[in-house]
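Q: Okay, next protein. This is Proteinase inhibitor I78 from Streptomyces echinatus. I've checked the sequence twice, so it should be correct. Can you predict the 3D structure?
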Amino acid sequence: MAPIPTPPAEPQDSPEGYVGLDSEHAERLARQRGWSTVRSLPPGAIITMEYRTGRLNFEVRDGRVARAWKG
């Protein structure tokens, strides 16, 4: 039987720290801190809700991060 793969560790980073930042700056900062995928979304966007390790999501309003969450 094959071993169960261990997902890579997520960055030790708080999504709340991105709220209020300019979206472009927030994306660069998130990548520098180790997030493998950064997804910027408009308010009310319809998205899939599967959890992906290493992904950081931003809801962007008027060029600023209004909400941030993992997965």
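A: Here is a summary of the prediction. The radius of gyration is 13 Å. The domain at 16-70 is CATH 3.30.10.10 (Trypsin Inhibitor V; Chain A).
Q: Noted. On to the next one.
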